[in-house]
Design a protein that fits this description.
outer membrane lipoprotein receptor (LolB), chain A, 19% helix, globular, 12 strands, twelve-stranded antiparallel beta sheet, alpha+beta, single chain, disordered N terminus
Length: 221
């Protein structure tokens, strides 16, 4: 007789863990929006080279790890350097990424004990900062409150969703065999000297079952 109550408690915990700590964009009609202009304006608005200070929350297997991340990104060269420390100043990991490789310069044993942490984390960091603009040849699907671009990427399909009054990228999802492999959601964009940065980012990795929450604190160029 107690099983329904236990199930409800577990569901409540799951819903709590999957909460979104950022504000979603307000709905706005896209009935008269030109998809090609949405794509072009967004491409012109995102920075090519930048330095960010973020807070990071990593949720996996009912556990939460939090820290501070310093990231140096060059989207033209496809390079990224990331250092993460905890609140006590202890280094958690350091990664160096270029177009051909992902190198783990340092990682605590807690991160490396269950496989190639550097490759897994590095691939997800690339998904957050690279390849955010669909190609001109992408299939376009106009919805009531969004424009969706779909295109082939690797062995699967990437879907880019632009929505909200500013017509920014709010979600990118990669599918294989009809199901999502990973999804990156972007919230609360900030404008700094004519370039935009998401104030909040959530990456959901369905393959490994974890979530990374990134909150922007400072921007440098």
């Amino acid at each position: 007789m107690k099983r329904p109550a236990v199930v409800l408690c577990l569901l409540a915990l799951m819903i709590g863990c999957e909460g979104i700590p950022f504000k979603k964009s307000l709905d706005e009609s896209y009935s008269s929006v030109d998809p090609s202009m949405v794509r072009e304006r967004f491409q012109a608005s995102i920075p090519e080279r930048f330095l960010l200070l973020n807070t990071l929350v990593f949720e996996y297997n009912w556990k939460t790890f939090s820290g501070i991340g310093f990231v140096d990104v060059d989207t033209a060269e496809r390079t990224c350097n990331l250092v993460s420390i905890n609140q006590m100043g202890v280094k958690l990991f350091e990664l160096s990424i270029d177009k051909d490789s992902i190198n783990t310069l340092f990682a605590l044993p807690e991160f490396t004990a269950k496989g190639n942490f550097g490759k897994m984390a590095g691939e997800d960091i690339k998904r957050v900062y690279f390849d955010l603009v669909p190609s001109k040849e992408a299939e376009i699907n106009r919805k009531k409150f969004s424009v969706i671009f779909r295109q082939q990427e690797g062995e699967g399909i990437a879907e880019y969703v632009f929505s909200g009054p500013d017509q920014y990228l709010t979600e990118k999802t990669y599918y294989e065999k009809g199901g999502p492999v990973w999804r990156v959601s972007f919230y609360e964009y900030l404008n700094r000297d004519g370039k935009i940065y998401p104030g909040g980012t959530i990456l959901k990795n369905y393959l490994y079952g974890y979530r990374l929450i990134i909150r922007l604190k400072e921007v440098s160029d």
